[in-house]
Amino acid sequence: MRNRVHQTFSREIMIRVAGWGLGVFLAGCESDLPPAAQNLPWEVVLTGTNFCWEITDPGRDGKLGTVDDLHLAPPLRLPANIPTRVLLRSRDYLYTFELTALQIKQIAIPDLTYFVEFNSGKPGESEFRGDQFCNNAHNALSGTVIIQSWRDYRRWQAIAETEQQTQR
Description:
Elements: H1 2-29, E1 42-49, E2 52-57, E3 70-72, E4 76-79, E5 83-90, E6 95-99, E7 104-108, E8 114-119, E9 124-131, E10 143-148, H2 150-167
Parallel strand pairs: 1-5, 4-10
Antiparallel strand pairs: 1-2, 2-3, 5-8, 6-7, 6-9, 9-10
């Protein structure tokens, strides 16, 4: 009986220690988990300004409004198969943003934030279109959406971060 209690007690300690170690490991790797594993939508910002879109990617920490945000021109890159929220803003005029493949369209108005939500889907490319409500074509408001696997997306972020730092 004593040996059996000792084995049960030892097994319970091993399980708790292993669980604690796994918790510490996952806490250290949290920013490298895909957003779907964290139950969060992936957010990016598109800001219409001077007849084109500026993209703000949340960078390696996955959070907008931090020092590692990436400020980019199109194409719009997103990780695959996750809930995604694109925040739409404008600095100057009224713009529309349309994801043609998903039949989603939304407006961007100065001093307001609108958004579109969707599942990013499988890796691949599609197009987005924009308009500025002035009856002139502005090609810089249209572009490509590139959906990448989480690993490829993280590689791209690292490269874009390095390029952004060298341009400062």
